[in-house]
Design brief:
Elements lengths: L9 E6 L3 H13 L4 E6 L2 H9 L12 E4 L8 H10 L8 E5 L4 H9 L4 E4 L4 H18 L6
Parallel strand pairs: 1-2, 1-3, 3-4, 4-5
């Protein structure tokens, strides 16, 4: 590990409608050693507007990584994922599905839409924090992210 990603600020977009899960994710990422900036949107429509820098998100940073819940209002996480991967400007952004669902149909559908990985949120607080830290460590310290 050479820490190449650590040399620059890593932009993360969290698409999560549960404020408690958003707060916990933010807390876990703060504890990591990553130089990251977390933006949060609460529904699928806002997620796509953020990613496409439309409307109120005209100056939004380009995410290096998206953490995506599937159970979202307005537009589901699977719809967001499908639209991202169909858009040449967005398809290279890695997407970690981080959701409460452990249903096989959701797992298969996520990978069919080119999710980078699928993680079921642990219900235990300590385990949830540990999982987010592992995501942080793997995606921001081990993996080489594409330049924009």
């Amino acid at each position: 590990m050479d820490g190449t990603n650590r040399r620059r600020l890593i932009e993360i977009l969290l698409v999560e409608d549960n404020p408690d899960d958003s707060d916990l994710t933010l807390e876990a990422l703060k504890e990591g050693k990553a130089r990251n900036h977390l933006s949060v949107v609460e529904d699928g429509v806002d997620a796509l507007s953020f990613l496409r820098r439309q409307g109120a998100y005209g100056t939004a940073p380009r995410p290096d990584l998206v953490l995506l819940d599937l159970n979202l209002p307005k537009k589901s996480g699977l719809e967001v994922l499908a639209e991202m991967k169909a858009d040449p400007a967005l398809r290279r952004i890695p997407v970690v599905v981080l959701t409460t669902s452990d249903a096989e149909r959701d797992i298969v559908a996520s990978y069919n839409h080119s999710a980078s990985c699928y993680i079921t949120k642990p219900v235990d607080l300590g385990r949830f924090l540990a999982v987010v830290r592992l995501i942080d460590e793997f995606w921001l310290d081990v993996v080489q992210l594409p330049p924009w």
